[in-house]
Structures are given as C-alpha cells and as structure tokens.
Amino acid sequence: MRALVLALSALLAPMVCTASAVDTVNIAEAEWRKLSVRHYEFTYRTTDVAFPLEGQAAAVKIRVRHGKPVLMHFAENYGRFRTGDPVPKRLRANFPHSLDVLFNTVRSALEFAENREIFTTYDPRYSFPDRHSNRSREMFDDDSGFVVTEFQILHDL
Q1: pTM of the entire predicted model
Q2: Cα–Cα dist 85/23, whole Å
Q3: What is the spatial distance between Cα 100 and Cα 79, in angstroms, rounded to a whole number?
Q4: For residues 91 and 64, which has the higher predicted lDDT (pLDDT)?
Q5: Angstrom distance (rounded) from CA 52 to CA 84
Q6: In which domain, by residue range, is 58 found?
Q7: I need a surface site. Which of 19, 109, 115, 128 has the fewest CB within 10 A?
Q8: Most confident of 9-18, 61-70, 111-120
Q9: What gap in Å lies between CA 43 and CA 24, rounded to an integer?
Q10: Which of 31-40, 43-52, 116-125, 148-157 has the highest mean pLDDT?
Q11: Mean pLDDT in residue range 80-99
C-alpha cells in the first residue's frame, strides 16, 4: 500500500485539485494512522516569508507524545527569539501540534484550489506530508507552505 501512495504522489506532483489528489491525501493519512506512531519529533519550517510575526519563515522543533505536543521550541533564530527558545503560547496556533494536522492542511488547500497551484509530497517511509506549497496563479507573493524535516520516532518513554 505504501508503494501505491508513493506512486500516486509522483504522478500527482504538483497536485491539481482533483478527486485523485484528495484520494492521495486520504491514502497517505490511512497509511500514517496504520503505523500508530504516537511518540515522535520533527522540525516544521514555514516556506512563506509573509509569516505572521517577523516577515520571515520560521522553523520550529515539535515533540509529540501520545499524539499531543509536549515541546515546541524555535529550531533557529526567529526575530527576537533564539534557537531553543520555547514558542510563546500566543504563537503556538501558527504551527501544527502534530503531523496529523498536516493532512487537514493539505485537504483544505485542495478544497480551495481554484486559481492555485498545490504541490505536496509525502515521506516515503511514514506517508505524512513532508513538503507542501500552495501558490496563487495570479498573485506573485501569495504563497504558503511548509517543509517537515528531522522526523524521528521517540522510543525513550
């Protein structure tokens, strides 16, 4: 089944809003859920420079236990925040609290894909979205997206 997800991802990149693109998200999510990965960490990097605070992309390290975030800190300097600083509560809503959220991010982008170019790839081993771009075909600076790196399963509970 994982090979099917990869094959579909390769065929549909960049994705256009079609039933097949939505099916790809659903298949990838089913594969991710089947693996039952509940304890992990990853780095989430925004790719849009019009990000809420400092007009620059942000990178955040997120640790998840039992499917819920237990640690969220900056993975690199971001405005007045330094690498390793915790993400303040007021900013946490700008970042996913788990990889599960990213499937909905992609699905939502596909739902409103008119006049947009949607590009999504999935991790070849774990099937979560690891790169996503959502660009306007009409406006130069209307681009949002993310990249997930440094994913690792945590075994030390």
Answers
A1: 0.80
A2: 38
A3: 28
A4: 64
A5: 19
A6: 2-153
A7: 19
A8: 61-70
A9: 23
A10: 31-40
A11: 92
| Single-letter amino acid code for the residue at 149 | T
Strands of 68-74's sheet in order across:
68-74, 59-65, 40-46, 143-153, 129-136, 116-122
Residue holding tokens 């997206």?
145
| CATH number of the domain to which 95 belongs | 2.50.20
What is the C-alpha to C-alpha distance for residues 59 and 77, in angstroms, rounded to an integer? 8
Question: Can you tell me the distance from the alpha carbon of 82 to that of 95, in angstroms, rounded to the nearest whole number?
Answer: 17
Cα maximum dimension of the chain: 48
Overall residue count recorded for the chain in this entry: 157
DSSP classification of residue 78: B
Q: Is the predicted pLDDT of residue 156 greater than 80, yes or no?
A: no
- Residue 142: name the closest of 13, 57, 18, 49 by CA: 49
Nearest by Cα to 15 from 138, 152, 111, 123: 111
| Total domains present in the chain | 1
For helices 100-111 and 19-35, angle between their N-to-C axes, nearest 10 degrees:
170
Cβ contacts of 56 within 8 Å, gap of 6 or more = 49, 78, 79
- Long-range CB pairs of 111-116 (<8 Å, 24+ gap) are 111/17, 113/16, 113/17, 114/17
Q: Provide the β-strand partners of residue 148.
A: 44
